[in-house]
């Protein structure tokens, strides 16, 4: 009997190894370092160190637009590959399981295309430019702008670093926008509320992501053991604990009000959580969507705004600052509100300001890492056969720094987006996608 069992196990092992070798042989035809089709150790280690994106970009520079970067992982950097990868025929990989919130899949992590489409629809309208620049949202934006200006005035000469004012301001706006007054923070005035921002800087965050991505079963066992032993204060077992705790308790407060048919104030009625609930998203799915969107907004807005201010603060960029000042000073009184600030609609029409933000997004996109997809059957992309189940993604870092499309790619040069031919602009736009692409691109793009 034992001989039969051993033979059966050995047969399965041989089949598994042969399938792996067959997969590796197909990937070996794709350009890249010789050992890459056999292992993912190096790329995983670089990911843990925060160096994966630059490493992959360097491989594209050496090997071209299609590169095998690890076993079962291929990176591409041509605009022709974008519509092929980010299409309804592809599906998200297990990579996105790390972002499941409250045991619920949000529209960011949903695998099924139709489920994602149905869930995404109400949020797309909530983040549309027309919605954000009108009604309660515009009033909220004006209020938060004045609070930031007041806080900034109190810090002159600056006793804090500027980002220490920007981060809490973003948090206060986004919590009010998503949760209304039920979950609005006062991080500019309260260090306790600002602890949510501390989640974004937690040093162990990358290690946790690495552990749950590479060793999911072991990481799950370790989590259970740590929690049972009461050691979670010493060994964090989840990312963004303050943010998700805030989101959970705010959802509970909202859910109680709805169940009691209590009237919501104007700000809360216009919030994401209320509008999403009215569209039919309820229960923990609603809690997960709102917490997930708060996290995404905090990461994206902090990164982009602080990157823009850092670049503009450099002595070499003084001329860019001056041109921005001139554009703002040239605005007529009719374009300003009662406090003398330009409206959202006005800002969206300022050519140089928009060029500065585009150039910031080119060099410092909110998320420049891989956004992987997979196919259930073999697919040909840019002339290479990609085996079924292989993780494929675009290297945004390489695309945004393609010297043939963006001359002097490392130079911060907003003028590249101004006074160019229609054909030239179209070519740059093809390689510019800081909010991803396809039906699953970021809902906050506008």
From TrEMBL:
Cofactor: heme
MF GO annotations: heme binding; iron ion binding; monooxygenase activity; oxidoreductase activity, acting on paired donors, with incorporation or reduction of molecular oxygen
Signal peptide feature range: 1-19
Top-rank taxon, per record: Eukaryota
Keywords: Heme, Iron, Metal-binding, Signal
Similarity comment: family membership: Belongs to the cytochrome P450 family.
Protein name: Cytochrome P450
């Amino acid at each position: 009997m034992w001989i039969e069992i051993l033979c059966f196990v050995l047969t399965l092992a041989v089949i598994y190894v042969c399938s792996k070798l067959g997969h590796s042989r197909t990937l070996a035809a794709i350009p890249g370092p010789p050992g890459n089709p056999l292992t993912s150790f190096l790329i995983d280690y670089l990911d843990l160190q925060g160096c994966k994106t630059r490493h992959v970009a360097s491989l594209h520079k050496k090997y071209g637009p299609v590169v095998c970067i690890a076993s079962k992982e291929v990176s591409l950097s041509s605009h022709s590959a974008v519509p092929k990868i980010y299409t309804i025929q592809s599906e998200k990989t297990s990579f996105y399981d790390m972002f499941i919130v409250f045991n619920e899949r949000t529209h960011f992590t949903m695998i099924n295309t139709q489920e994602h489409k149905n869930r995404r629809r109400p949020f797309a309208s909530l983040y549309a430019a027309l919605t954000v620049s009108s009604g309660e949202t515009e009033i909220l934006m004006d209020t938060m702008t004045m609070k930031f200006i007041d806080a900034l005035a109190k810090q002159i000469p600056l006793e804090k670093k500027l980002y220490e004012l920007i981060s809490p301001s973003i948090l206060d706006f986004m919590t009010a926008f998503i949760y209304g007054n039920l979950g609005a923070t006062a991080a500019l005035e309260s260090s306790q509320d600002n602890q949510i921002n501390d989640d974004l800087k937690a040093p162990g965050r990358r290690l946790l992501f690495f552990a749950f991505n590479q060793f999911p079963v072991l990481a799950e066992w370790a989590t259970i053991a740590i929690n049972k032993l009461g050691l979670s204060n010493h060994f964090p077992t989840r990312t963004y604990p303050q943010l998700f705790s805030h989101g959970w308790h705010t959802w509970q407060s909202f859910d109680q009000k709805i169940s009691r048919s209590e009237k919501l104030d104007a700000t809360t009625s216009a919030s994401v959580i209320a509008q999403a609930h009215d569209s039919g998203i309820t229960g923990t799915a609603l809690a997960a969507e709102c917490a997930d969107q708060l996290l995404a907004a905090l990461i994206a807005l902090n990164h982009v705004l602080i990157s823009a201010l850092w670049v503009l603060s450099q002595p070499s960029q003084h001329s860019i600052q001056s041109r921005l000042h001139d554009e703002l000073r040239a605005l007529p009184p009719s374009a300003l509100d009662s406090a003398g600030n330009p409206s959202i609609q006005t800002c969206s029409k300022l050519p140089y300001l928009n060029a500065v933000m585009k150039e910031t997004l080119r060099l410092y996109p909110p998320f420049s890492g891989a956004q992987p997809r997979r196919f259930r059957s073999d697919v040909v992309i840019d002339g290479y056969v990609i085996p079924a189940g292989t993780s494929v993604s675009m290297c945004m870092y390489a695309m945004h720094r393609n010297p043939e499309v963006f001359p002097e790619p490392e130079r911060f040069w907003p003028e590249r987006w101004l006074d160019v031919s229609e054909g030239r602009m179209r070519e740059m736009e093809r390689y510019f996608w800081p909010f991803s692409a396809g039906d699953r691109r970021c809902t906050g793009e506008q």
